């Protein structure tokens, strides 16, 4: 090689190193012992560790929070199989706990990262080094999570009664159908409780619809306090509510019904300068294979509710 060619090769090499040094991605090169042989400015700036500090030293010695066992397996597979490996932020949010300085997504403390591991072959074709490329995908990750959260919120809103916060009729009735189908498959006891506010029209007529809304919210709060996390409560319509009790025989449903009836009867509802006293009537029906479908089950509970009102209200009836 002539002197001129040698100088040109050095110039090209320096240019390539300069390019690698200033890439807007992290770049590191590790040898077979996982010692660092190259560490670009992106890695230095975000880690606070310079090339001079980490050169020739084990990567694991400088990053104690790395999942050593897991990451060593990844690196060894690249060396052994001569195939690239990829890690995305969905699998694990980050490999290195770098702080996030993104202006758009500054509300997240850590940088989300995608990682590529590449086998690097020498002139003889032997793989003795691994190239690690780190991409800052914080904006993408946070935007995607925000979209996911927004979709979940919209989904929640679409199945929630805005006044009471319980499930709305459409979603609750879907749950009723699913629970009935589950009962048919498993024969596990499941009970339906329907409840209705006694003389609710008088509340609206006497005190106004805002008072009626306060009563509906009060009933909903009592229901939420008394049911289990596995129970499914919804506003069926107007002043009528439904509660699905999976894995519950009617005898246990009667205990809940009496607790609800007593709590609502004995707790006055404050509205402006008034204290309202109300009662409820309840109908209870256990799931039964003899029903044609979930609507027959619902009709049975409604008949029991109607019977409770006919018997004088402020009570429950089990059919």
From TrEMBL:
Cofactor: Mg(2+)
Recorded catalytic activity of this chain's protein: 2 GTP = 3',3'-c-di-GMP + 2 diphosphate
CDD domains: GGDEF, PAS
EC number: 2.7.7.65
Entry-linked InterPro entries: Diguanylate_Cyclase, GGDEF_dom, Nucleotide_cyclase, PAS, PAS-like_dom_sf, PAS_4, Rev_trsase/Diguanyl_cyclase
Annotated PROSITE patterns: GGDEF, PAS
Gene Ontology CC: plasma membrane
Enzyme class: transferase
Domain GGDEF: 188-319
Domain of life: Bacteria
A Gene Ontology BP annotation from the UniProt entry: negative regulation of bacterial-type flagellum-dependent cell motility
GO molecular function: diguanylate cyclase activity
Domain PAS: 19-82
PANTHER family, A to Z: DIGUANYLATE CYCLASE DGCM-RELATED (PTHR45138:SF9), REGULATORY COMPONENTS OF SENSORY TRANSDUCTION SYSTEM (PTHR45138)
Protein known as: diguanylate cyclase
Naturally occurring in which organism (per UniProt): Nitrincola lacisaponensis
């Amino acid at each position: 090689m002539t002197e001129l060619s040698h100088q040109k090769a050095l110039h090209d090499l320096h240019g390539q190193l300069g390019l690698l040094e200033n890439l807007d991605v992290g770049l590191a090169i590790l040898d077979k012992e996982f010692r660092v042989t190259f560490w670009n400015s992106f890695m230095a700036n975000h880690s606070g560790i310079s090339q001079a500090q980490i050169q020739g030293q084990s990567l694991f010695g400088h990053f104690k929070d790395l999942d050593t066992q897991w990451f060593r397996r990844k690196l060894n597979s690249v060396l052994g199989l001569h195939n690239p490996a990829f890690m995305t932020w969905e699998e694990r949010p980050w490999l290195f706990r770098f702080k996030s300085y993104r202006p758009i997504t500054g509300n997240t403390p850590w940088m989300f990262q995608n990682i590529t591991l590449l086998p690097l072959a020498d002139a003889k074709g032997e793989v003795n080094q691994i190239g690690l490329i780190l991409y800052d995908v914080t904006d993408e990750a946070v935007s995607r999570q925000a979209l996911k959260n927004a979709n979940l919120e919209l989904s929640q809103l679409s199945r929630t009664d805005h006044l009471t916060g319980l499930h709305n009729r459409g979603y609750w009735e879907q749950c009723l159908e699913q629970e009935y189908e589950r009962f048919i498959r498993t024969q596990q006891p499941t009970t339906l409780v329907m409840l209705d506010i006694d003389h609710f029209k008088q509340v609206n007529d006497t005190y106004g619809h805002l008072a009626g809304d306060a009563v509906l919210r009060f009933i909903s709060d009592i229901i939420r306090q008394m049911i289990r996390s596995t129970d499914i409560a919804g506003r069926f319509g107007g002043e009528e509510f439904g509660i699905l009790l999976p894995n519950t025989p009617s005898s246990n449903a009667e205990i809940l019904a009496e607790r609800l009836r007593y709590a609502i009867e004995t707790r006055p509802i404050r509205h402006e300068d008034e204290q309202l006293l109300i009662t409820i009537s309840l109908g209870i029906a256990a799931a039964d294979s003899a029903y044609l479908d979930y609507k027959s089950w619902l009709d049975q509970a409604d008949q029991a509710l109607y019977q409770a009102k006919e018997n004088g209200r402020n009570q429950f009836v089990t059919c």
